[in-house]
Amino acid sequence: MLRKIFLASVVASLSLPALAAPCSDTGGKYESWKPQMAEEARAAGVGQKGIAALMASSYSKATIAADRNQKSFKYSLEKFLSVRGADTIVAQGRSRLKKNKDFYDSLEAQYGVPAGVLLAIHGMETGFGGFMGDTNVISAIATLTYDCRRSDFFKPHLIGALILVDQGSISTKTVGAKHGELGHTQFLPGNALTYGVDGNGDGKVDFSNLSDAMASTANFLRQKGWQPGLGYQEGEPNFAVIKQWNAATVYQQAIALMGKKIDG
Fold it and tell me: The Transglycosylase SLT domain covers which part of the protein (predicted)?
């Protein structure tokens, strides 16, 4: 709860016009933007390690290219399921549920989220951990904050990422997806800071650890309003919560459909 309150205060502090670092549609001004963003980050509570991580970041052309090329979200549901390998995700999800039923039952008991939804997300995001990204997280998030297209959306996640560096949860070398998402289920850093859970009891939250990642995903959904025991297909109460995970309609529909098949 304290972390959620703190992140909320971070977001509120970002509205101060005197501190706002200007965005840009090209990478040419990135180096001059970083010191301005650093001042804004300091005002939001980021410490020296986080500031150093921001100053060491570089403009990510790969991130911008990926952000401009998200074609699959414009597909029909049928094509989206085919392109994303839905049948394989369902088959592997069922197998993983069978092998680790106690683990997923414990998550449902604690958070109310059934295994099918968690496994569908895990399969969709990283192929069950097969590929968790190859892009520097700080550079990716900083680039998207600097870029004018969705600067306001990504700025709290940049602040979150820098605080995670301060805490030692990630480093300047941590890699993730092209938009800076972390670990097995691809948490954006601000969400990682707010909803991260130590699922294996080792005293830290590590999104490359399966237990931590899945518990954190379940916690995110529960905190966003998941109602235990109620349905999650379109038209049912918990479908609205799946929308909180990803804004693309075909993604939401795919998670619901695959989750149902995995759950049986």
Answer: 31-232
Same domain, 141 and 252: no
pLDDT in tens, the chain (264 residues): 444 444 544 544 444 444 578 888 887 899 999 999 999 999 999 999 999 999 999 999 999 999 887 676 778 999 999 999 999 999 999 999 999 999 999 999 999 999 999 999 999 999 999 999 999 999 999 999 999 999 999 999 999 999 999 999 999 999 999 999 999 999 999 999 999 999 999 999 999 999 999 999 999 999 999 999 999 999 999 999 999 999 899 999 999 999 999 998
Per-position DSSP letters for 35-73, written without gaps between them: HHHHHHHHHTT--HHHHHHHHH----HHHHHHHT--GGG
**In CATH, what number is assigned to the domain containing residue 221?**
1.10.530.10
Q: Are residues 29 and 151 in the same domain?
A: yes
Helix (H, G, I), strand (E, B) or coil at 101: helix
Strand partners, 175: 136
Instruction: Report the CATH number at residue 9.
Output: 1.10.8
